From TrEMBL:
PROSITE patterns: OMPR_PHOB (PS51755), RESPONSE_REGULATORY (PS50110). May play the central regulatory role in sporulation. It may be an element of the effector pathway responsible for the activation of sporulation genes in response to nutritional stress. Spo0A may act in concert with spo0H (a sigma factor) to control the expression of some genes that are critical to the sporulation process. One of its GO terms (cellular component) is cytosol. Residues 132-231 bind DNA. The keyword Magnesium does not apply. Residues 5-118 form the Response regulatory domain. The modification 4-aspartylphosphate is found at D54. This is Stage 0 sporulation protein A homolog. Residues 132-231 form the OmpR/PhoB-type domain. It comes from Ruthenibacterium lactatiformans. InterPro entries: CheY-like_superfamily, OmpR/PhoB-type_DNA-bd, Sig_transdc_resp-reg_receiver, WalR-like, WH-like_DNA-bd_sf. Keywords: DNA-binding, Phosphoprotein, Transcription, Transcription regulation.
Amino acid sequence: MNKAKILVVEDDKAVRNLITTTLETQNYQYHTAEKGSEALLEAVSFQPDVMLLDLGLPDMDGIAIIEKVRGWSGMPIIVISARSEDRDKIDALDAGADDYLTKPFSVDELLARLRVALRRARQDSGHAGAPEAVFTNGELKIDYAAGCTYLAGQEVHLTPIEYKLLCLLAKNVGKVLTHNFILKEVWGSALPGDTPSLRVFMATLRKKIEPVPAQPKYIQTHVGVGYRMLRIAEGEPVQKNG
C-alpha cells in the first residue's frame, strides 16, 4: 500500500470517481469531500500529503479554501478546475496553490503532477529547520554559501538578478510561481509593464543553464501565468516545456 495520503475535493461525482479510481490503481490512500466545509475538516483530521482541489464547490470558492489551509499548512495543493483563464490560474497560485490542472485532464498528467507534489512535500519535510547548503537537480548545482552555480561541473557566471531568479525557482522546485510573485520576491514590487523585463532576464538565464535553450528542461514556462523549475529525478524522463 502506498503510504501517501490524498484528499480529493470535488463535487462532480463523475470526475471524483475518475480521480479516486486512478488513485486506487496506484495504491494511494485517499479521502473525499464534496464541499469546502468538509474539505477543511478532512484536511485537519486526515492530515493528507496532497490536496486535489476543485474551485467550484457548492458552499464556498476553492480560493478561500487555499487561503484557509495556507494559514496552518504547507501541504501541496493541486487545483483541478474547469476554469481555464489565466486570471483564474494566477489567483489560485497567488493564494498558495502549487499547481493547476485544467479539466478535462489526462490520467497520466494527473499522476505526474501528483508525483512532483509528493517529492516536494518529502523534500520540504526532510529539510525542515535546516536549509540545504547545496541544491542539486540533474547536472545543475547551486552552492548557496559560495553564491556559485555549476552546470555539469563547470561554473556558470550569472548576473545578480539571474542568480536571484534561479535561487527562487530552485527553492520552490516543482511549484508554479506567478509573474507577480517572482517580481515581488526578486525586485520587491510588481508594477504594470514589469513582466516583459522578467521574460528578458529569464531568457538570458536559460541561455546559460539550459543545454538546449530552445528546448528547456529545467525551467518550464506557463504562458500568461509564470514559471516552474522542474525536478529532474534519476530514471525519469524530463518533462518537456509547456
